[in-house]
From TrEMBL, chain A:
Co-factor(s): FAD
GO molecular function, one term: glycolate dehydrogenase activity
Protein name (Swiss-Prot/TrEMBL): Glycolate oxidase subunit GlcD
Domain FAD-binding PCMH-type: 52-230
Alphabetized Pfam families for the sequence: FAD-oxidase_C, FAD_binding_4
Organism for this UniProt entry: Salinicola lusitanus
Protein's UniProt keywords contain Oxidoreductase: yes
InterPro entries registered for this protein in UniProt: FAD-bd_oxidored_4_C, FAD-bd_PCMH, FAD-bd_PCMH-like_sf, FAD-bd_PCMH_sub2, FAD-linked_Oxase-like_C, FAD-linked_OxidoTrans_Type4, Oxid_FAD_bind_N, Vanillyl_alc_oxidase_C-sub2
Length: 499, 388
């Protein structure tokens, strides 16, 4: 897949004189840090999807709201695109710079403005790290629930832009369920507040619309999050299975019994072996699948739930069930899961992470499909799975130094995502579309649906200056690349001209 | 493109659920045609489900009705997936019964305001019940929708999976939009198991003390899922595992009360709400405020719900006809000053918007969004605000 911005199909971008633009910005924001020398731009050439790199024309690192507003006004007047970047940990290239664009880096907006324990909320600047919020809330017995695996490094502004998830989503929700309000600067340099400290606001739910909008509708300058009281206890059960399908069914049994675990994760044999080799978490390396089931809440309820789940797992045919003896063992069980990506990274020079979601009942069929594709492409795939909410992370093992291997990895990844869409799922559960999955958007959505997305975009950014070429493909792109794979013998978008 | 989910057989309830569980009916083609015709004829449409929430929002004048009630039935419901997909014209009580038969429910506890309430109307109005501060709002449980756009096409956004960040979240945008951006034809919900244990308590406490205690309890993991004060006593609902509910009940004391308190509160049927929809005696307002906000100095009787975040005001102000606009503005301003907003629940004879006016920049983007999604202003024109 061609990842770099292609004006022919992604839309034209005006060519602007760099020094003229810098002078215009300096005139209205004299103290704004602007970087334009190649060696200064280099650290910003990619985000967490590091296979793809572009040097931006300029990097702007504002420290005040007035600087953001001034920058946006100048860019709007000069029709210069703006790509906003948080901590740069995104996995879909959402913050991939544009050669002809300004990269707006929000990392200096890094203050926790207030933690209100009585109101159970924290007001923070967008560059604050996800984990730092929970750390600031901890003295009050509170925490911020969404915990993407990058939580040590990723920033809350990026979490909002991607609607980030984590391992506790099924019970505690995604970013969208845990943010009360955001402050926005529009492309025209206006300020607006979406949401509020009340539980609802009049008019449309623009707060929900902006969640996961990947910097395409406005720039986030402040976030107010909801804090939750820390659960009294958390226990983890590990169940081993000789058969992946049986493990998948056990997940359904737990939920059907009226249990909503705090976390419910599954790993397949390749992922188990990788993790065990790396972390020594005590995983049985001969198991075909393990389930980690965390139950949290009030002591007496957790005890009852543990007993209930243990019986269900036995009935479901688990070959071994272990309850973490103490908090240290609980952490160890999780350490294996949380280190699964780097662990797989040790088995192979490179790996590529996929982020599809499916209805859980489709798990056996989709896993079989992934196995078949893996054999067909001659590339190994390890499967890590947020089983509770149907979010699959197949990791494709490859070697970028082997000619053609990156390309076949991308092709295999694309096929896996199509398998997910075909099963009634989505091409991305929590990593976002970014630049990476633009072509697969054409598989998940029909041309009319994509047209409506563009209509929404134009209501907030008519000139297409905010992060162009991400999240929503042009119909021209769908016509050219969306046809890569034939579905049920039909070309997608047969109504579109092909060139 | 056909997705697998379209090939799944439609949900059929187990036979014991009774003779009045109606078979599903797909009326989407006719609905699309009606919209396309309206666009061609430059007509406007007033979208109607069970017509139980007509009072909520401005009256839509001179428009032809588009009824969703012929488009009904549960399309998919697999309790193990915690997902139910339902056509908009399905009666809310039919959905709730199917869920209850499987020990599940809509956690946001939507009010019906009448037997005929439909799922589409419930989502379009976007009103959540007493459990909202703890469980979440309607929009928190909407996973996907189908809508008919202003050019008469039925499109799908979101889906039947818990996590989905592909494209903009148009599903949640439709919640509370009152049909002004498109006709909802189908909604997929996340549903949740009904907890194993529950208890309803009444504690004789003055309001200030009740709110102080709720603030302290809010910082602990307690199984509270309802907290309302009627001027005399604090009403609490506990839901969770047997252990935590019984321990909390012992700790808090008070007397046990009937769980009907909560359904009556949800449906605005407690004695406090008597005559609320009859404009002569008083006007009912809903104030949505930060839970810790000081109660605005407004004349009238108060009932506090959502542990302080939703406050009902029965006001005598503005009942005299010519005073109305001034009295309304006064209440909106007081709610804004307290950090929230107000909604007039008693219909207004003058046709003013019951909703607090939007600040200028927000209003601009609302207008532009409406203009892009419904350029000819076919759908429920003026339902939320007179200008669009």
């Amino acid at each position: 897949m061609e990842l770099l911005y292609d004006e022919r199909i992604d839309g034209e971008i005006a060519t602007v004189d760099k020094s003229g633009l810098m002078a215009a910005i300096m005139a209205v924001a004299p103290r704004l840090t602007l970087l334009d020398r190649e060696e200064d731009l280099r650290p910003f050439e990619c985000d967490g999807l590091s296979a793809y790199r572009v040097l931006p024309m300029l990097v702007a690192m504002p420290t005040t709201l007035a600087e953001v507003e001034a920058l946006m006004r100048v860019c709007y007047e000069h029709a210069v695109p703006v790509v906003t970047r948080g901590a740069g940990t995104g996995l879909s290239g959402g913050a991939l710079p544009l050669e002809k664009g300004v990269l707006l880096v929000m990392s200096r907006f890094n203050k926790i403005l207030s933690v209100d324990a009585d109101a159970r909320l924290a007001r923070v600047q967008p560059g604050v790290r996800n984990l730092a919020i929970s750390e600031a809330a901890a003295p009050h017995g509170l925490y911020y629930a969404p915990d993407p695996s990058s939580q040590i490094a990723c920033s809350i502004g990026g979490n909002v832009a991607e609607n980030a998830g984590g391992v506790h989503c099924l019970k505690y929700g995604l970013t969208v369920h845990n943010v009360l309000s955001v402050e926005i600067v529009t492309i025209e340099g206006e300020r607006m507040t979406l949401g509020g400290e009340s539980l609802d606001t009049p008019g449309y739910d623009l707060l929900a619309l902006f969640m996961g909008s990947e910097g395409m509708l406005g720039v986030i300058t402040e976030v107010t999050v909801r804090l939750l009281p820390k659960p009294e206890v958390a226990r983890v059960l590990m169940a081993c299975f000789d058969d992946v399908e049986r493990a998948g069914k056990a997940v359904g049994d737990i939920i059907a019994a009226g249990c909503i675990p705090g976390g419910l994760e599954m790993m397949d044999n390749l992922a188990i072996r990788a993790a065990e080799d790396f972390v020594h978490a005590g995983y049985p390396v001969d198991a075909q699948a393990i389930l980690l089931c965390e139950l949290d809440g009030v002591e007496s309820d957790v005890q009852a739930d543990c007993e209930r789940v243990r019986q269900l797992l036995e009935t479901a045919g688990a070959s071994q069930i272990r309850l973490a003896r103490d908090d240290a063992e609980r952490q160890l069980f999780w350490a294996g899961r949380k280190a699964a990506f780097p662990a797989v990274g040790r088995m192979s020079p490179d790996y590529y992470c996929i982020d599809g979601t499916i209805p859980r009942r489709e798990l056996p069929r989709v896993l079989k499909g992934i196995n078949d594709l893996s054999a067909q492409y001659g590339l190994r795939v390890a499967n890590v799975f947020h089983a509770g909410d149907g979010n699959l992370h197949p990791l494709i093992l490859f070697d970028a130094n082997q000619p053609g291997e990156l390309e076949s990895t991308e092709a295999l990844g694309g096929r896996i995502l199509e398998l997910c869409v075909d099963a009634g799922g989505s091409i991305t559960g929590e990593h976002g579309v970014g630049r990476e999955k633009l072509n697969q958007m054409c598989t998940q959505f029909a041309a009319d649906e994509i047209t409506l997305f563009h209509a929404v975009k134009s209501a907030f950014d008519e000139r297409r200056l905010l992060n162009p070429g991400k999240n929503i493909p042009t119909l021209a792109r769908c016509a050219e690349f969306g046809a890569m794979h034939v579905h049920h013998g039909e070309l997608p978008h047969p109504e579109l001209p092909r060139f | 493109m056909t997705h697998l989910q379209d090939q799944r057989p439609e949900y059929t309830p187990p036979s014991e659920s009774g003779p009045d569980a109606p078979a599903g009916r797909d009326d989407s083609e006719a609905l699309c045609e009606q919209v396309a015709r309206a666009q061609a004829e430059r007509a406007t449409l007033r979208i109607v489900g069970g017509n139980t929430k007509a009072f909520y929002g401005r009256r839509v004048e001179t428009a032809q009705a588009l009824s969703t009630t012929g488009h009904h039935g549960i399309v998919h419901y697999d309790p193990v997936e915690l997902v139910a997909t339902v056509r908009a014209g399905t009666r809310l009580r039919d959905l709730e019964r199917a869920l209850a038969d499987n020990g599940q429910r809509l956690a946001f506890e939507p009010p019906h305001f009448g037997d005929d309430a439909t799922v589409g109307g419930m989502v379009a109005a976007g009103i959540s019940g007493p459990r909202r501060p703890w469980a979440g709002a309607v929009r928190d449980f909407v996973l996907g929708v189908r809508i008919i756009t202003s050019d008469g096409k039925q499109l799908r956004f979101g889906g039947e999976v818990m996590k989905n960040v592909a494209g903009y979240d148009l599903s949640r945008l439709m919640v509370g939009a009152q049909g002004t951006l498109g006709v909802l034809t189908e909604v997929s919900f996340k549903v949740l198991p009904t907890p194993h244990a529950h208890a309803c308590l009444r504690l004789e406490l003055p309001l200030t003390e009740a709110l102080e205690r709720l603030t302290a309890w809010g910082r602990e993991p307690m199984p509270i899922t309802g907290a309302a004060h009627d001027g005399e006593a604090l009403h609490l609902r506990l839901e969770g595992g047997e252990g935590s509910v019984s321990a909390t009940r012992q700790r808090l004391g008070g007397e046990t009360e009937d769980s009907r308190f909560w359904s009556q509160l949800r449906e605005l049927q407690l004695p406090f709400f008597d005559g609320a929809f009859d404009n002569d005696a008083h006007v009912l307002w809903r104030l949505s405020l930060p839970a810790l906000a000081r109660t605005p100095a407004l004349e009238g009787d108060w009932l506090i719900d959502w542990a302080g975040a939703q406050r009902w005001l029965k006001s005598a102000e503005g009942c005299g006809f010519e005073d109305e606009p001034r009295a309304d503005a006064h209440i909106h301003e007081a709610a804004i000053a307290a950090g929230g907003h107000a909604t007039r629940f008693t219909p207004d004879a003058n046709g003013a918007s019951p909703f607090t006016p939007l600040p200028p920049v927000l209003a601009k983007y609302h207008r532009q969004l409406k203009q892009r999604l419904d350029p000819q202003a076919i759908f429920n024109p003026g339902r939320l605000y007179a200008e669009w």
